[in-house]
Fold these 3 entries.
Entry 1:
Amino acid sequence: VAAADAHERCRRFETARLDITPGAARAHVEARSVDLAQVRPELGHATNAVCIVGRRWRTRGLFLDRRAFLVSYDPTADDDGAILTRTLAAVGPVGAGINLEYYFSIIDRLGYGSGTKLPHNITGLVGVMDGHASDLRTGLPWQMVEIHEPVRLLVIIDAPPERILAAAARVPAVERLAANRWIQLVAWDPGGSGLHVFTAGRFVPFEGERCVQPVVERSIDWYRGHREHLPPARITAALGGRAGEVRA
Amino acid sequence: MTGHDVVAALVVMQLAAPAATLGLVGLPALLGRPLSERATTQIVGAGFAVGFLAAISVLGLLFARGFTPEVVHSGTWFAVGHHAATVNLVADALSVPYVCFSTGLCWLVNSFAGKYLHREPGFTRFFILLALFGTGMNLMVLADSIDVLFAGWEFVGISSALLIGFFFERRNAIDAALRAYTTYRICDVGLLAAGVVIHRAVGSGDFERLFGADWPASTSLVPAGTATVVSLLLVFAALGKTAQVPFSGWLPRAMEGPTPSSAIFYGALSIHAGAYVLLRCEALLDAAPPARAALVVIGAGTALHASVVGRVQTDLKSMLAYASMAQASLILVEIGLGWRVVPLVHVVGHAILRSLQILRSPSALHDRHELEAAIGGHPDLGGWSPLSWLPAGAQAAAYRIALERGYEEMAVTKFVVGPALRLLERLAAAERAWVTWLGEKPPRRAGGRP
């Protein structure tokens, strides 16, 4: 599993060959982690775009390109929405915080981001500045965000729209994030009424174009040979032969 | 092929290999089609590797023959009347170990930088400058005449300034590069003047006319007066690159470039270039007590300055810059005391340790976390300082002086740079007035107009 995981991360590293084997990929990421000269030991949360709060079986077998925060939540055991409230109170600010940090660091690499790492100089063991004298650099360095796509976090919640509205109303931080459009909330109704997008204070049913979802046996079949962002695909090996209730 | 030919070929290779990579990487970049990152790193690395292996081979050959120097005549650069600037290289007990060490470090930093600068817009530029620096360094070290040495010295200076200004979109980097370059140029006058004096005294720049016997037992062949003048000029030349007071302000500011270049220039090679030149000409210093006294006084003063000022620096690279400065100053003191092998060993040891520390400096927070996790708390880094022997009032004064970096820059700005700028401004104003006056003068004769 470690080798397969390393292999999936390696497709983003330009110094790892695209035809690298899983074993070599594991050795590659291990070597990166201890290399003094390596300014990108890992790419961290770069490219993050989605947060899916829900039952894990609903997304099982879906290739999300390592761009999703996956948070477990069972709407069937939470009729009064208390668990959802607590979950959103944690997930909203943290997920949005991470996502927006990347967002702003890439749209203004020098102002909000901290520029390139190369001349960084550790100051007082608390932070870095550029070279011999500069302000403390607080954003993410260019090396961390260069492959990031500046999008606001799409938070998909496996719960009925009314319960999400009620939960968000109890957590001011989440309500402000959603109302001021720092994040995009989507209700993925367990009752089968599809997706609802939070727009101007309420949830409206999502009318998207229908797209055919690619189906491959293993994720490696889908990402092999690619460095760029990839759309989701259905991975049949993860479904163990039975069709999951996965929707696009 | 005689033994001499073999050594000659190997010595030339130490220069030609890095110089060739300069062309191989530089030409495609000039034509607008820079090589890939991998090819760039491999070509420049191969140049250093060949130079390093050639230097090691020469070291072996020399060792087998009891370190009898080999002088390689590579032709005459130019000749005017009875003056001739010859391109002579020397392989002896000083130059060959030094080339092994400097080319080896360049090779290592090349490998480090290949990863560190991955995807950086100035990638090719960095490696071109590194190859230029390596070539210049080897030229300077292998030089057997003051002319060749000066050429190498200038390559080192220009590549150093260009790498400080590597991030030329940042104002601070450009200011720091200009400051370093200005300091270098002022002190280069010393080396150039020393060259002129040597040419006048012995009719050529060749070291064999200056020194008798082989390094480290070399002796001076020129009169004491000439030796004193040349030595004082060389000491002046060394002050800039070695960042001695009052020329030390550029060094902490020079930490604007990418970390690997800071490591090799200000931790390892460029900072010791002045010490190398003095070691090479130590026979002259022996005959010039005033120059040796100046070295000891300036070196000891700067060591004290750097040690006190370095203690209050809050950022890692400034701390390392002052630590470098302190050690380089001690090396100058050792040279001033007339020692020869001790400073050479000190240079190599210091350079290796300091460049490692600078290369490691970006990982300092990580190292700190590991240390704290290992001992389960904050390490007690209070430590003992010789300054704690001072009375409380003097300690406070030392602290204030250190925070102001010894008031060195203030003094230089107020008493040297300021008056010089005012003088230049006055001259410029006089020129403008003069030109206006000339322009207003009516023409004496009516000339034909086109």
Entry 2:
Amino acid sequence: MFYREVGQFKTNYVADSAVFPILQDRVGLAVILFTAFVLIPCFGDSFLIQAVMIPFLIFALAAIGLNLLTGYTGLLSLGTGAFMGVGAYACYKLTTLFPSVNIIVWVIASGLFSAVVGVLFGLPSLRIKGFYLAVATLAAQFFLSWCFVRVPWLYNYNTSGAIEVPTRSLFGLPITGATATHTVRYFLVLVIVVVMTWLASNLVHGRIGRMWMAVRDMDLAAELIGIRLLPTKLLAFAISSFYCGVAGAMLVFFWYGGAEASVFDVNLSFFILFMVIIGGLGSLTGSFFGAALIFILPIVLRYIPPKFGLPIHPATVEHVQFMIIGALIIVFLITEPAGLARLWQIQKQRLRVWPFPY
Amino acid sequence: MDLLYNVFIDPFVQMGSAPDLLVQAMWEGLVAGVLYALIALGFVLIFKASGVFNFAQGIMVVFAALTLVGLYQMLARWGVQPAPLAAYLALALTILVMLVLAFAVERLILRPLVNQPDIILFMATFGLTYFLIGLGQFIFGGETKVMIANELNLPRGAIEVQAFGGFVSLQEIDIAAAVIASIMVVTLGLFFQKTRIGRALRAVADSHKAALSVGISLEQIWVIVWFAAGIVALTTGIMWGARSDVSFALDIIALKALPVLILGGFTSIPGAIVGGIVIGLGEKIGEFYWGPLLGSGIESWLAYVIALIFLLFRPQGLFGERIIERI
């Protein structure tokens, strides 16, 4: 009833193969974009923008990156955190070596460094599959985290071992560092995430996406129909790492404002993997759902008990939070192993046939 | 040339000139390897019987150790005397807790998720990991604890062996760990080969469907393997806890067990043992002789690189079953 494509005729092939073929979807997307670009900056307070929206968007981008690799190409990776770290450190090095070039250029360029590293560690993927590959990518994770600590050149030999984001500006407006306002940073993050999501959407709906999905479904069969496995898999690693690298650079430059190696440890990799799996493997919308759930849930859990005036010790809250997150992961997997994206599909179908059951 | 000398010649010269140090390093590596092997053993048991890549095995080690110490402290507070009695009572109770855990996992996680893709089950064990971290700390507190090694009458002290023109010091607890590990492996081997349940376990490992069709209860088998993995975890926890403290910082050893697994193959018990020892030895000797060249701390990734190199030549691990793919 509310979501019906009756009367929406498609008269050419382009309209038929559109990503959002139904009017309601397009309206929905417009509303979401309007909210993100106009309503949130106008009416959102600094907590919402700084502590919720900016990290949510950045993590969603990282989740899209991992989803391209794990969800679309079927290569399980546990090295996401390290690839994000490569992006962050590359961006830091580039902007301190060439301060005159605009920072946004370097944020994007740092993704390229991450892509190269990703390809390097993706090389074993031709021979190694499944969980064996996951453990092999852990090698990348641990090796790179070690590099972030032990190679002082990466953090310009400063004594703290951490990278500090310098102040950089665009059109005279500071966009990174301590003086940048959260609204400016939010807009930058939003624009980059929206553009890169759009690119990813085009990618997975096109020839490359089809190749990836063929490899995911069965790589031997894909090889037989003429898909060259090594270039396809390496391309997936490269693009996935590019996204993760950009997300990592944004994480440090537009959110933390400074970071040390421990930020990019194996827990970050797991964190992103949770988002991808809870959100839905092989779904870009799912990446946003997953990031929202996994990132925003702990915030909610932290702020709800004091609201009710429950006198709980902070350490206990922390422990219970762990238990709740663990239990929720299991519950979500049991209710819908295909993730939140699938739940959303089911709801759309319900809306479509309402008020009838089918 | 200097670099090549430092990499390829110098470490061996050092080994030759001070064999007692080499033996000491090898012994340390061997002991660490045995503990890695024990964790990997828990993984292999579960993977063989249910095809679940159980990420929670490392946390089960910590959880078991924490439960043991926590229960002992509770019993001691309630005035159970003497100390060894309380310790053994706590041990029995912990075994009971692991049994309950096995039942709960089977009922609440495995049964609803039966027939799902591997990665979903893998994620579910992640959820279990988080849950156990929270639960363990919620009940027994988050602070670091000391393993009740004395109360359990575990040997302590060190034996100094005069060999190779120097002294090699062997911790008694390490010897005990090696002995207990071997006993456990032999017992498990006998259990798998000789008993009815063991035969059922092997049948399930071969094919779930065929096992079901001859009347083997999958649920029962899963509870048994998770319980067995829990016992292995408890033993590992005691041994590891006696060497260092018991805290959730130990969960890093779970990640250490992964290269052991891929080296030995996911499905092979001897593989887990050999893999553990290879990784343990390689790590300690690498750190000791080649570590200074790169800056210390290479222990954190050396194991993975060793495993990765092995994988490039044998994608199924050293002892894993050959992976046959058909269209």
Entry 3:
Amino acid sequence: MEPDLFEKLRLELRRGSLTLAVLVALQHEHYGYTLRKTLSGLGMEIDEGTLYPLLRRLEAQGLLVSEWREEDKRNKRFYRLADGGRPLLEQLLAEWRALDGALTRIHRDAAAVATSN
Amino acid sequence: MELVERYLHAVGAYLPREQAGDIVAELKDNLLSRIEDRERELGRPLAAAELEAVLRQSGHPLLVASRYLPQQQLIGAAVYPYWWFSLRLVVTIVALIYVALTVITAVTGGDPVGAVIRGTASFAGTVLFYVAAVTVVFALLERYQVRIGLFDNWRPAQLAPVQDSLRISRGESLFDLTVSVIFLGWWLDLIRFPLAVHGDVALPFKLSAAWHPFWWGILLLSALDLALALANLMKPYWRWDRLLLRIALNLTGLLILHALFQQPELVVLNQAAELSANVQRLVDLVNRGVHVALAVLALIFVIELVQDVRRLLTLR
């Protein structure tokens, strides 16, 4: 088996969920560094090389808004979920729950078949 | 902090000018926050090596900047199948043209080894150009997000039927049989064509003496070809024994063709008439035509050889 196969599949699995995690977390305002620390503290590691371009992309897509403000004597860019992004976030969350439910049922079904054999 | 400034300047150099300031300012805040956090943990300012480690962890400036650029790949997943399909098509067409031209040059030029070397070198340059041209076209389609709907209107019913590579079509066997019978008839002088095997006053040309050493060999090959076509017609499925026979026939055929290629005169005038310049030109032209015909035949033998070896591998 490919030595880095697990890492490859793990990255594939996480790619979509990172966007969702960022959108959910940005229901409260954050700047990049604190957002990353918050996500990491809750078990969702994301490296800065992924996070900052993602924030810009989501802003360009109209899902986030940002503003530069001074805090602790330094200029920081604060992001939050745009009002127009909220319905899409709800749709994505519903999709996530449906996927989670489907996967749980598939796993349960496979486990039951394995037991009966 | 001079190192941080140098790092940020390097990142900015790879970014579009209108976005560079904004992105670099945000990266700067992130880097300074990380450094401050680390200094708080250690209770002292970072040493040069520790600062360098923080920057290294952020990634090379070129890679950091490239993540902000709109195009992350030359050919993306949506364009890739079209690019790969076009590339294979173009390379195949160029290769076929080069093989045909090289064979003709090798046969008619008198320097077969040189012709193959020149053909291969020229092919490498040409094919690189076409690969680059196709890639540039598809990279532009990717860059401007042009949707290619080439395969949108396809119908399953139009897909090619599944072919069994070991099945021999009756048409193919009948064709082989007919060609073998006609050729044998001609070779044994039972059928008279404008080109006589043994010479006939009514016909303008005959085969030259260059063919004489191969007369029995060609007769045997044709007879075996006829037998093979008959067997294939009755049992239309390739088996290893018939495949081995055809491989042997084609290899022998190639050896004979190679020997014949060395002879400049394969066809001569039937009547020993005095050769005027015009008639000599005509004889030369006919000879060139026969050489090209033999080259085409050699190509067919090679194609059949490749197919048969693949079939043998399938049978294993």
